[in-house]
């Protein structure tokens, strides 16, 4: 199969008609240059930009790890692995990250994957344990490498790269322009693909200021969300505890929200994202963990209840909105005791909130948990067919479906949930009975 036919097949698997300009340039550069630096905004498709050429560079007759991708967070690791699996490459992939059972990872690595994706800390651990050979790795990708440095992974990354003596090509990927590339990467004068411009950062993004009468901003946040009349929002805090506290408070006040942060179990974090992606929960309260590297939809509204210490993180938070020339609004809530940050314009618009906004209607969709996934030979088409035929749902009643290895989630109209569960309680999908119920979530 030619490269062109292979790419077409892969894009069809992903449901994508064509590559964007950044992806096209990245594909050509990674295939033909020794070292490449990709700079592009959050949400621009950087993952596919480096996975496509990786697919072209892997060799099917090799039995060792050929490509290593390092990421700062486990969410990004999982996202990249998910995209790779959807590409239908035929090459084995494994992921390694904190919170994932080490014994499972060691067992998976006993038959080396062509592509290995992991966080610096966990990959360093595996190298120390000698659970896989480094000799076959000739391609290295450092995704969101600037974030890895900010999170303090420099020593682990340096340790890993020092052991990769056969690397012939390195790809650096970032959503942020930075100065000198660290020496431990062994990358000098890379071919640069830069799609980050000052103009792009400002496209159709309105920053608005909201004043709170109290240092406890929960009531102000409630009013602001009510003023959005049901539009989804991503709400940022600096610490885990206030994120949870605010979510619990909003739920008591009649708004359906959930929280997301690094202190949660991986399963709970993934479920929170799934509910947010499919519209079952419209408000996700989170730390800077969700500022980039997550597979979540573009947001029209980003709310900063607490401002980050660094201006760069403020930019990344707001990068979740106003992408691809669409419009968006980033709100900043300040108490009377807080001063306006220097990086906010002096003439930033002040929003005055009313006490009389109606509480938005509850979400139209609810999420179902299905105890079967890819490893059970279940796909999205199977689930849609089952819910339509056995559950007696119309296509308009079925929302986003996500299929994992051993389980799946499907969003359906909330008003149809009880009847659907009753209709399918004794039914089989592809000849097997699966447990199907309303998905649990911490709220």
Describe this structure in words.
The protein is α/β, with parallel strands linked by helices and 443 residues long. The chain folds into three domains: 3-196, P-loop containing nucleotide triphosphate hydrolases (Rossmann fold); 199-351, P-loop containing nucleotide triphosphate hydrolases (Rossmann fold), CATH 3.40.50.300; 365-438, RRM (RNA recognition motif) domain (Alpha-Beta Plaits), CATH 3.30.70. Helix content is 34%, strand content 20%. It is built from 15 helices and 18 strands. The strands form three sheets. A seven-stranded parallel sheet has the order 3-4-2-5-6-1-7, sandwiched between helices. The protein has a seven-stranded parallel sheet with strand order 10-11-9-12-13-8-14, with helices on both faces. It has a four-stranded antiparallel sheet with strand order 16-17-15-18, with helices on both faces. It is globular, with a radius of gyration of 23 Å.
Structure in a nutshell:
The chain is of the alpha/beta class and 443 residues long.
């Amino acid at each position: 199969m030619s490269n062109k036919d292979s790419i077409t097949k892969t894009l069809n698997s992903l449901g994508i008609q064509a590559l964007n300009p950044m992806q096209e340039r990245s594909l050509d550069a990674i295939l033909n240059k020794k070292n490449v630096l990709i700079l592009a905004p959050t949400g621009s498709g950087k993952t596919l930009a480096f996975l496509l050429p990786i697919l072209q560079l892997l060799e099917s007759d090799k039995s060792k790890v050929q490509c290593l991708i390092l990421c700062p967070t486990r969410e990004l690791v999982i996202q990249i692995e998910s995209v790779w699996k959807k590409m239908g490459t035929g090459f084995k992939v494994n992921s390694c990250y904190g919170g994932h059972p080490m014994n499972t990872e060691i067992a998976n690595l006993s038959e080396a994957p062509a592509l290995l994706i992991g966080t610096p800390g966990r990959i360093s651990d595996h190298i120390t344990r000698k659970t896989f050979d480094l000799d076959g790795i000739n391609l290295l990708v450092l995704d969101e490498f600037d974030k890895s440095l900010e999170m303090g992974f420099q020593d682990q990354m340096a340790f890993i790269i020092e052991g990769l003596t056969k690397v012939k090509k390195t790809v650096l990927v970032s959503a942020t322009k930075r100065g000198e590339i660290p020496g431990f990467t062994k990358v000098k004068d890379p071919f640069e693909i830069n799609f980050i411009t000052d103009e792009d950062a400002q496209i159709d993004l309105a920053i608005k200021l909201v004043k709170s009468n109290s240092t406890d901003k929960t009531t102000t946040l409630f009013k602001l969300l009510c003023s959005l009349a049901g539009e989804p929002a991503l709400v940022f805090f600096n610490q885990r505890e206030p994120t949870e506290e605010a979510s619990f408070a909003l739920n008591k006040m009649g708004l359906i929200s959930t929280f997301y942060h690094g202190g949660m179990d991986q399963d709970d974090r993934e479920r929170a994202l799934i509910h947010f992606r499919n519209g079952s929960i419209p408000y996700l309260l989170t730390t800077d963990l969700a500022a980039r590297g997550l597979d979540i939809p573009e947001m029209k509204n980003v709310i900063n209840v607490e401002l980050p210490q660094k201006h760069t993180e403020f930019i990344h938070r707001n990068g979740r909105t106003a992408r691809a020339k669409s419009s968006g609004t980033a709100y900043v809530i300040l108490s009377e005791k807080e001063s306006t940050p220097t990086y906010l314009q002096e003439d930033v618009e002040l929003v005055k909130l009313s006490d009389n906004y109606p509480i938005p209607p509850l979400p139209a969709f609810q999420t179902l948990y299905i105890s079967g996934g890819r490893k059970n030979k279940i796909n999205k088409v199977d689930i849609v067919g089952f819910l339509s035929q056995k559950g007696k749902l119309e296509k308009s009643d079925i929302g986003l479906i996500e299929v994992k290895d051993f389980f799946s989630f499907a969003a359906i109209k909330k008003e149809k949930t009880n009847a659907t569960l009753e209709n399918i309680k004794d039914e089989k999908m592809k000849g097997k009975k699966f447990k199907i119920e309303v998905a649990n979530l911490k709220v």
